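Predict the holo structure. Ligand: NAP.
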Amino acid sequence: MNQYQVLITGANRGIGLEFTRQYAADGWRVLACCRDPESAAALQTLASASKNIQVIALDVGNFSQIDSLALQLKNEAIDVLINNAGVYPHSNFGDTNYEDWAEAFKVNSMAPLKMAEAFVQHIARSQLKKIATLSSKMGSIDDNTSGENYIYRTSKTAVNMAMKSLSIDLKPYGISIVTLHPGWVQTDMGGANGLINTQTSVTGLRQVIADLSLQSTGQFIAFDGKSINW
Ligand SMILES: NC(=O)c1ccc[n+]([C@@H]2O[C@H](COP(=O)([O-])OP(=O)(O)OC[C@H]3O[C@@H](n4cnc5c(N)ncnc54)[C@H](OP(=O)(O)O)[C@@H]3O)[C@@H](O)[C@H]2O)c1
């Protein structure tokens, strides 16, 4: 069996950095994508200590850059694509910045589908054939009891629907899809009051990805393995 390969977006900090650390430590080859490799100090330190990590420049809001990377990697097999990069512009009623909303839709909702379109052949030729996208319980309509956060919530609700359709469309190619809630995690986005650290979140998320199969494709699952209502 060949070494498994995972491509991770937003790999320079937070949950993406921890995914990189854990998969590399487990013997996987990691294509660790980040917007600015030169300023990605923590990722560069990890990469210099592990021959399994390749640091790659990728702004997921730049779709021609996504196409160029897919071409550059055209002979690679990607076992797992992890759409992790995300933004969280604050937005309460009466204070909505519509440019922020458009940008958040590009990064949080459109880029995961664009990544799937660009890399579908790389994934289809791999052994595991999986796509995992970091969403959030805040995108669950069922779970919304506190309102506000229009931009972040809608961007995650939209990606949930995109991933559901993708799970149906890619099933004939043997590719399975999971939409993930990582918990409330102590990162720059989650803040210091988060309930869990990145190690706990990513250990759980990796288990969910390991358990993913064509039979279970198209679900919204938390880091602890529990299913979340859309
Ligand atoms: N933390 C939580 O409690 C929580 C809860 C639910 C869901 N999530 C989701 O989990 C994912 C990771 O969150 P996190 O907590 O690790 O956030 P974070 O610490 O804020 O990190 C966000 C990552 O996304 C990257 N990113 C943002 N825009 C990008 C772009 N255009 N192109 C490439 N990379 C970009 C950032 O890169 P730069 O350093 O270049 O900005 C950074 O690596 C996100 O999708 C988030 O919505 C997090």
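Residues 135 and 180 are 5 Å apart (CA to CA). Strands lie at 5-8, 29-34, 53-57, 80-83, 130-134, 176-181, 219-222.
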